[in-house]
UniProtKB/TrEMBL annotation, chain A:
InterPro entries: BP-dependent_transpt_permease, MetI-like, MetI-like_sf, OppC_N. Residues 106-295 form the ABC transmembrane type-1 domain. It is a multi-pass membrane protein. The lineage of its organism: Bacteria, Pseudomonadati, Pseudomonadota, Alphaproteobacteria, Hyphomicrobiales. Its main location: membrane. Keywords: Cell membrane, Membrane, Peptide transport, Protein transport, Transmembrane, Transmembrane helix, Transport. Belongs to the binding-protein-dependent transport system permease family. This is Probable dipeptide transport system permease protein. The chain crosses the membrane at residues 40-61, 108-134, 154-180, 223-249, 269-295. It comes from Roseibium aggregatum (strain ATCC 25650 / DSM 13394 / JCM 20685 / NBRC 16684 / NCIMB 2208 / IAM 12614 / B1).
UniProtKB/TrEMBL annotation, chain B:
It comes from the Bacteria. This is Binding-protein-dependent transport systems inner membrane component. It comes from Roseibium aggregatum (strain ATCC 25650 / DSM 13394 / JCM 20685 / NBRC 16684 / NCIMB 2208 / IAM 12614 / B1). The keyword Transmembrane applies. CDD domains: TM_PBP2. InterPro entries: BPD_transp_1_N, MetI-like, MetI-like_sf.
TrEMBL record, chain C:
This is ABC peptide transporter, periplasmic binding protein. It comes from the Bacteria. Keywords: Signal. CDD domains: PBP2_DppA_like (cd08493). GO terms for cellular component: ATP-binding cassette (ABC) transporter complex; outer membrane-bounded periplasmic space. One of its GO terms (biological process) is dipeptide transport. Pfam families: SBP_bac_5 (PF00496). Residues 1-26 form the signal peptide.
Length: 309, 335, 534
């Protein structure tokens, strides 16, 4: 999986073909190990379904997520006494169809995961590369800042950040990304430290590659495996934390059908209308579980040390 | 060893000052202020508001406020709560035992169930039991615990009526706080039924708080055990004909537990974050709920002091784990 | 230090146990209160929870509200006179009133004018030795009611006559003096504390003239009072009054059902039906002295046109709000003052729910494709249990008539200050709870021209309306004031600066054995005259 040597420039086409083949072989190997893990495949299937559901929410959902049926406040699910077939999972306190809100809610949760992981990953990788590559004062400074962030419980820090930025979905995502980022920094830095003295890096340096090229083109691709595993982990953490913030009233604001926010709104009905409390939680659990299953599979397939255990 | 310890402590100092700076600047960035909040719909005159802010010392230049704050820390003075007018440290010390009691019970549950489950799964690798345990652990690991708490309340407090909805003990009981741990105090008080009442209040919150650490510990124990079981000395022990129980108990377990101890230490941060949600759901009068309430009340010095104290605890625990790990595993020390 | 605290706490525990043991014949009334008092000198605070535990059981005022009404009766003042120009109020004080004798204070003289002067001058005069006697507190209500600007001086005419001189006429003055901040404290006790150098004790160990004597307070747990045997209004039917502090509504109800307390405030709305079906409990209810409203910004186009505001009012389905948000514990509002208040104009007709009409009215006003913001408070208030949900219902109602709504919210302190801005974008959900039962306290504060840029969130200044309420301030005849306020409500309804939404209903569950409890329209909790049937 190492990079093809950049030294020979003569036969570029051949080289490219070779590297394409190598990538393909790598992927096949990865897929082989990944598909060995049944849980991971199930997780991937559920996750894909969730993505499809989110993409085609307007087609799948039986009702508009915001429409209030004024004659149907707190209708129980269809199998309960008093339930209506029109509202499969019942309605909430202002008569909105819970199933439709859950389907549209998938959009928000997946969106949160993607955005948070992208911000945390890109930010964390760049900072980590710089720290590991530059060493010295820069490194020390960066790592102390990361220590400071990690010294606070993540949810508490996110809570304070959202209080400063103002409650809302976007601000919640920013806060969570900041809180998750140090993990990427540490991981990248550690990988860079172990890679930078390797032969291929030294060779590239000797060949006159610049700092940017060394950091991003030479070293980074070789640190990808742990980063991918961490990214899946962060994806599920982001969804959980955003839901927790929503639950504390600091995340997405009503009437956004975000799952955590729906739970917060449902809290007062806990002993009276179990369905408004139960279903959003199941949605969160299933989504996070699917992503974690995929994450376990990725780790097994990518981490050579654990591969055959 | 001494040098190692010194080095670790040396790292803590800049982090500590960084934490003070973060706590300090955060509360100055929070929009809104407590004077406005207390006045409510009635409103407050600009003059009175300025007076309140100056009582809080907010009219001084920033660097001056910061120096005052640092000087205060070294004298054990973290300021005074705007709402209760009590010193922040006093409030923290009265509420901390509630969180500590909850967290301790949770970690005991997590360890007592997580480690045996992990060992069992590793020993029976690939069996139905292994898959069931690891499946359950992954569900626990993926659990939104605020919802889990609500679900348990619906079932045990609502439908079955077995446990109370919130609080630490039935308010029928009035007795002095000696240790701050309700389980111990209720026994000391000698009041009939007090201990039982405290247990019934504690059970659901600790289960909720234990869920994620338990899952993490079980998974970690399993993979550590698997790794160790594959090592040469275990194979040798097996080859020597030692009974499997002795192999697992004597050789494998001891070595496998090293990384697990680290994991347990790292769960302290998770527990404190979890306590914020758990305490909110169960109206548990601990520091998690205290901080959440104080953020929404803009009780500046409580937020500032509370952030610092919690960060301090996490840093101390991390240091202890580091040192313990260094003691057990000499390789780390020179790294 | 901790040991001392513990010792104190355990001593209190022992004394409680002794009282409980010897008090087989003693009648204890236990009230499961919702929170801890901030202190016992009521004038320093604004929270009802604090007043319930301090000013109401322990103290008296010059004038008192008649239980269950906002009508004013003589209290420590037997009678009063108002001068022709409305600037001088002369009070004749009651003679033979004794302050409490407690373990920490024994009075040597009876209540007189010195106590009245001390009570008010410490709040009025910045150089008074008691003006800043506890750190970090202020005379919040006294200042909030603009008393420092209003009162010119307070004169002791003789030992039993006191004269208040005002800078301008203020008709609600008498009602103001029945409020909690005007509770009369003992000047003699204060002098004793000052001599001992323990001024703070005035806020910790209170001495008053009221129906109950303070016995002890164990923080966040229990407050004890004993009936004042020498009370000028006669000894109470119960011997001891106990506040068991229980913040959780569900727990309060459990304790009430278990017989651990006799009365509880603020049940959870979801528990109301359960309480009603319980034979051992009585559920009293009363309309709260409050109003929840949606204030348009009348300085912002197109909301500067009354027709537009009126049209939007017709689009709101109040019944849906009462069902979804109040869940039965509310009542639709048509006037800016609650129905329990005198001068409430029942002849005013509400804007009915009529989306068709609303659409037509908007078209007639030339408004198309209207987009607006609705501000929703982040907190629960007595007049609005869930502002966000209310905003969502209104959002859906407005969508029905083609008006697009964006819901915005800020942190509560921010919300209050930002919503005052005259250039505020959008209509704001807010409300008000009455202080003294005077309509002026609603109409002038919330809708007067002086309040624009401040407590008048509609930024509404209407000459006709303002003239009416300003006149009502200076007239002392209640009949005349009633007429003026009734007329003002008609103007309000025509101009529609607000959509009036609801008044909440307050519930008070208690054991069926409790007799003589009367609900206070001002939201306080009084225990004088309450008895327990055996």
């Amino acid at each position: 999986m190492t990079n093809t040597s950049p030294a020979v420039k003569a036969d570029q086409t051949k080289l490219q073909a070779e590297s394409r083949n190598a990538t393909k072989a790598q992927f096949l190997e990865f897929w082989y190990y990944f598909s060995q893990n049944k849980g991971a495949v199930i997780g991937l299937v559920i996750f894909s379904l969730l993505v499809l559901m989110a993409l085609f929410a307007p087609l799948v959902a039986p009702h508009s997520p915001d429409f209030q049926y004024r004659d149907s406040f707190l209708v129980p699910p269809f199998w309960e006494e008093g339930g209506k077939a029109a509202f499969l999972l019942g309605t909430d306190a202002v008569g909105r169809d819970i199933l439709s809100r859950l389907i549209f809610g998938a959009r928000f949760s997946l969106f949160i995961g993607v955005v948070v992981v992208t911000i945390a990953l890109v930010g964390g990788v760049v900072i980590g590369l710089v720290a590991g590559y530059m060493r010295g004062m820069t490194d020390t400074l960066i790592m102390r800042v990361m220590d400071i962030i990690l010294a606070f419980p993540s949810l508490l820090l996110a809570l304070v950040l959202v209080a400063i930025l103002g409650p809302g979905l976007i601000n919640a995502m920013i806060a969570i990304a900041i809180v998750l980022q140090p993990h990427f920094v540490r991981l990248t830095r550690a990988a860079v430290l172990s890679e930078r003295t390797r032969d291929y890096v030294v060779a590239a340096k000797v060949a006159g590659a610049g700092h940017m090229r060394l950091m991003f083109k030479t070293i980074l691709p070789n640190c990808l495996a742990p980063l991918i595993v961490q990214a899946t982990l962060s994806f599920s953490n982001a969804i959980l934390d955003a839901a927790a913030l929503g639950f504390l009233g600091m995340g997405a604001q009503p009437p956004t059908p975000e799952w955590g926010t729906m739970l917060a709104e449902a809290r007062e009905f806990i002993l009276r209308a179990w369905w408004v409390v139960t279903f959003p939680g199941i949605a969160i659990l299933v989504t996070v579980l699917a992503i974690n299953l995929v994450g376990d599979g990725l780790r097994d397939a990518l981490d050579p040390k654990l591969k055959r255990s | 060893m001494f040098r190692f310890l010194l080095g670790r402590l040396g790292l803590l100092i800049p982090t500590f000052f960084g934490v003070t700076l973060v706590a300090f600047s955060f509360i100055r960035m929070l929009p809104g202020d407590p004077a406005e909040l207390l006045a409510g719909e009635r409103g407050i005159s600009d003059e009175r508001r300025a007076q309140v802010l100056s009582q809080l010392g907010f009219d001084k230049p920033l660097w001056h406020q910061y120096l005052d704050y640092i000087a205060g820390i070294f004298q054990g003075d973290l300021g005074t709560s705007f709402v209760s007018k009590k010193p922040v440290l006093d409030e923290f010390l009265t509420l901390f035992p509630a969180t500590a009691e909850l967290a301790l019970c949770a970690i005991i549950i997590a360890v007592c169930l997580g480690i045996p489950a992990g060992i069992f799964a590793a020993v029976k690798r690939g069996s139905i039991a292994d898959q069931a345990i690891m499946g359950t652990a992954l569900v626990g690991y993926s659990m939104p615990i605020f919802w889990w708490g609500l679900l348990l309340i619906i079932l045990f407090s609502g439908t079955l009526g077995w446990t109370p909805v919130s609080g630490r003990i039935s308010l029928m009981f009035f007795f002095p706080q000696v240790t701050g741990f309700m389980l111990i105090d209720s026994l000391l008080s000698g009041e009939k039924g007090a201990f039982l009442s405290a247990v019934r209040h504690l059970i659901l919150p600790s289960i909720v708080l234990a869920t994620i650490p338990m899952a993490v510990i079980a998974r970690q124990t399993r993979s550590a055990m698997l790794e160790v079981l594959g090592e040469d000395y275990v194979r040798t022990a097996r080859a020597k004909g030692l009974p499997p129980r002795a192999v697992v108990g004597l050789h494998a377990l001891r070595n496998a537990l090293i990384p697990v101890v680290t994991t347990i230490g790292l769960q302290v941060g998770v527990l404190l974050a979890g306590a914020i949600l758990t305490e909110t759901i169960f109206s548990w009068p601990g520091i998690g709920k205290w901080l959440v309430d104080s953020i929404s009340r803009r009780d500046y010095f409580v937020v500032q002091g509370g952030l610092l104290l919690i960060a301090g605890i996490i840093m101390m625990v991390n240091l202890i784990v580091d040192v313990l790990y260094g003691l057990i595993n000499p390789r780390i020390r020179h790294n | 230090m901790n040991f001392q605290k513990t010792l104190k706490a355990s001593l209190l525990g022992v004394s409680l146990a002794v009282i409980a043991a010897t008090g087989a014949s003693a009648k204890n009334l236990v009230y499961c209160s919702e929170g801890s008092p901030e202190g016992f000198d009521a004038a320093l605070y604004t929270a009802g929870t604090t007043f319930d535990a301090s000013s109401k059981p322990i103290y008296n005022r010059l004038v008192e509200f008649k239980r269950g009404t906002t009508e004013v009766l003589p209290g420590l003042a037997e009678s009063w006179e108002v001068s022709e120009d409305g600037l001088e109020y002369t009070f004749k004080l009651r003679q033979g009133v004794k302050f409490h004798t407690t373990s920490f204070f024994t009075p040597t003289r009876e209540f007189n004018a010195d106590d009245v002067l001390f009570t008010f001058e410490r709040q009025l005069k910045k150089d008074h030795p008691w003006h800043e006697y506890t750190a970090g507190t202020a005379w919040e209500y006294f200042e909030g009611m603009s008393m420092p600007d209003l009162i010119k001086e307070i004169v002791k005419v003789d030992d039993y006559t006191v004269k208040f001189v005002l800078n301008r006429p203020e008709a609600p003055m008498i009602a103001n003096l029945a409020m909690d901040f005007a509770s009369i404290v003992s000047a003699e006790y204060a002098a004793q504390l000052e001599a001992a150098g323990t001024k703070d004790q005035l806020n910790q160990q209170p001495v008053g003239t009221g129906p109950f004597t303070f016995v002890g307070y164990q923080k966040d747990a229990v407050i004890r009072y004993a009936a004042n045997a020498d009370y000028w209004g006669g000894k109470q039917p119960v011997d001891n009054l106990i506040f068991a502090i229980t913040p959780d509504a569900a727990v309060r109800l459990q304790k009430l059902k278990a017989g651990e307390c006799h009365i509880m405030p603020y049940p959870a709305p979801a528990d109301i039906t359960d309480i009603q079906s319980d034979d051992t409990l009585t559920l009293m209810e009363q309309q709260g002295l409050n109003v929840g409203y949606l204030a348009y910004n009348t300085k912002q186009a197109p909301f500067d046109k009354p027709e537009v505001r009126k049209a939007l009012n017709h689009a709101i389905n109040k019944q849906a709000i009462l069902d979804a948000v109040f869940q039965g514990s509310g009542q639709a509002a048509k006037n800016p003052i609650p129905p329990t208040m005198w001068s409430y104009n029942d002849a005013v007709e509400d804007d009915d729910y009529n989306p068709e009409l609303a659409k037509e009215m908007l078209e007639a006003a030339g408004v198309k494709d209207l987009s607006m913001k609705i501000w929703a408070m982040p907190v629960q208030r007595p007049y609005n249990p869930n502002a966000r949900r209310m905003a969502e219902v209104i959002q859906a109602d407005y969508a029905n008539i083609g008006v697009n709504v964006e819901i915005v919210s800020y942190e509560w302190g921010e919300y209050l200050s930002r919503s005052k801005d005259e250039n505020r974008d959008g209509a704001v959900l807010l409300g008000w709870t009455g202080d003294n039962g005077d309509p002026d306290n609603f109409l002038a504060v919330l809708l007067g021209c002086d309040g624009v840029g401040g407590s008048n969130r509609a930024q509404w200044c209407n000459e006709e309306f303002d003239a009416l309420i300003m006149k009502a301030k200076t007239v002392t005849s209640k009949e005349e004031r009633t007429k003026l306020y009734e007329e003002a409500q008609v103007v309000f309804k025509e101009q529609a600066p607000w959509a009036t939404i609801a008044h909440s209903v307050v519930f008070m569950p208690m054991s069926s054995k409790v007799t003589g409890y009367i609900m206070d329209p001002l939201g306080g909790h009084w225990f004088d005259g309450v008895d327990i049937a055996e």
